[in-house]
């Protein structure tokens, strides 16, 4: 069903719920419109020493065009500018054809680190000569994934100083696969120790998911950057320079990538995935060349008058397993996305990260990032001062005109209004 998203940001939460309810099944509609939460009984099974549940805003960045298909992306974040920036970027990028994504592979990697190996070369030969047997042994440890068309795919070794490390790649299908990998790896330990003559230090999944890479690209017409042609071209040039800066300066690269993860983390949280694993994979990948760099690149295509963005990073995302099936809000999030499979979801998340990066660079190289941030910050200051919704509407323009936009000023303005 096609939805008119015009004025979505100006609607009340209730109006937004009613608008998106057509995207949901009946039970999910009821859950969303009644603002239900994670049941305490379920939460008690998900974490130890439970005291209660912790709420964060559950928002929507609508109308992303990705591979010719429209997605409405749920985001869990406490920072309002993140959702606003993503939605703004999605509109501009859609006008130029949207995002294109490529999922390069969907395998997870685990490792068994061996030490006290008498002869690493002979041990490596011995292990590789039993490769087929070891792969079968790994699959026997987790037969259910084989039935679903996945399982152990490859095994290889690398010498790392005092260690001989055995690596195992596994097709985990729709699951993230941590428990699956760990079960398989631990099953291989006795055989690897016997073949190598060494000892196992540990057998564990790696979060550096280099076999789960996804790329998102987009091309934005320069004319959409500004109504002024000269200013638009200057912005395109400066965005390219900002991208170059993130490749050579680690201080900028850290903030550049943090901006990307502003969007990525928000949808990873919303879909019930492990945002810590995604962060670890992404930041490790940013250092793949030996120095930490920006994950995305932007280039100014002079001939076609477009700014071209590309983002590649590991995205070991899941649609099954873990707490995904336990949390009702997570189920709403997947349904809002159209219940994508893991590969499709990886492309959506990478596209959102690239959109977030586009919005940040456009703001930074244009009017500066504070203009938009301060308006949203001013609203938070008024709420913290105790202003109700009507008072915030009245006081926001006044606070934005103040030289010192802080908590004290917000409290003074509120006191004056009420007096």
What can you see in these coordinates?
The mean pLDDT is 93. The protein has helices at 13-20, 26-33, 40-46, 80-95, 120-129, 131-141, 143-147, 178-196, 229-248, 250-270, 275-285, 328-336, 342-365, 370-385, 389-401, 407-418, and strands at residues 58-66, 69-76, 99-103, 108-115, 151-160, 163-171, 199-205, 213-221, 296-301, 306-314. The chain has a four-stranded antiparallel β-sheet with strand order 3-8-10-9. Strands 5-6-4-7 form a four-stranded antiparallel β-sheet. The protein has a two-stranded antiparallel sheet with strand order 1-2. The protein is 50% helix and 19% strand. The chain is α+β, with helices and mostly antiparallel strands. Helix 4 packs across helix 13 (342-365), helix 6 packs antiparallel against helix 8 (178-196) and helix 14 (370-385) packs across helix 16. The protein has 16 helices and ten strands.
How do the helices and strands line up, and which of them pair or pack?
Layout: H1 13-20, H2 26-33, H3 40-46, E1 58-66, E2 69-76, H4 80-95, E3 99-103, E4 108-115, H5 120-129, H6 131-141, H7 143-147, E5 151-160, E6 163-171, H8 178-196, E7 199-205, E8 213-221, H9 229-248, H10 250-270, H11 275-285, E9 296-301, E10 306-314, H12 328-336, H13 342-365, H14 370-385, H15 389-401, H16 407-418
Antiparallel strand pairs: 1-2, 3-8, 4-6, 4-7, 5-6, 8-10, 9-10
């Amino acid at each position: 069903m096609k939805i008119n998203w015009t004025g979505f940001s100006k609607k009340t939460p209730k109006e937004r719920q009613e608008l998106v309810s057509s995207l949901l099944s009946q039970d999910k509609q009821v859950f969303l419109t009644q603002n239900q939460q994670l049941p305490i009984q379920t939460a008690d099974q998900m974490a130890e020493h439970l005291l209660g549940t912790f709420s964060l805003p559950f928002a929507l960045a609508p109308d992303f065009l990705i591979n010719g298909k429209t997605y409405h992306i749920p985001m869990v974040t406490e920072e309002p500018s993140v959702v606003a920036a993503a939605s703004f970027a999605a509109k501009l990028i859609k006008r130029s054809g949207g995002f294109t994504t490529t999922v390069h592979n969907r395998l997870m990697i685990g490792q068994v680190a061996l030490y006290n190996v008498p002869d690493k070369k002979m041990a490596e030969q011995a292990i590789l000569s039993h490769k087929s047997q070891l792969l079968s042994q790994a699959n026997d440890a987790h037969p259910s994934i084989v039935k679903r068309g996945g399982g152990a795919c490859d095994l290889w070794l690398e010498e790392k100083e005092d260690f001989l490390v055995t690596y195992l790649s596994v097709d985990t299908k729709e699951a993230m696969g941590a428990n699956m990998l760990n079960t398989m790896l631990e099953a291989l330990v006795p055989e690897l120790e016997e073949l190598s003559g060494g000892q196992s230090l540990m057998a564990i999944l790696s979060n550096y998911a280099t076999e789960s890479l996804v790329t998102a690209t987009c091309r934005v017409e320069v004319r959409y950057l500004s109504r002024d042609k000269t200013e638009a071209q200057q912005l395109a040039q400066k965005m390219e320079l900002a991208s170059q800066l993130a490749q050579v300066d680690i201080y900028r690269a850290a903030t550049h990538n943090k901006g990307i993860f502003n969007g990525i983390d928000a949808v990873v949280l919303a879909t019930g995935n492990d945002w810590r694993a995604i962060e670890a994979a992404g930041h490790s990948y940013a250092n793949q060349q030996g120095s930490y760099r920006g994950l995305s690149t932007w280039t100014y295509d002079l001939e076609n008058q477009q700014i071209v963005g590309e983002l590649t990073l590991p995205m070991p995302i899941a649609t099954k397993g873990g707490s995904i099936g336990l949390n009702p809000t997570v189920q709403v999030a997947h349904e809002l996305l159209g219940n994508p499979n893991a590969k499709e979801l990886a492309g959506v998340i990478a596209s959102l990260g690239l959109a977030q990066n586009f919005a940040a660079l456009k703001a930074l190289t244009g009017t500066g990032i504070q203009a938009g941030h301060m308006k949203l910050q001013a609203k938070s200051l008024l709420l913290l001062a105790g202003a109700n919704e009507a008072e915030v509407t009245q006081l926001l323009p006044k606070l934005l005109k103040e030289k010192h936009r802080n908590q004290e000023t917000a409290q003074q303005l509120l006191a004056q209004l009420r007096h």
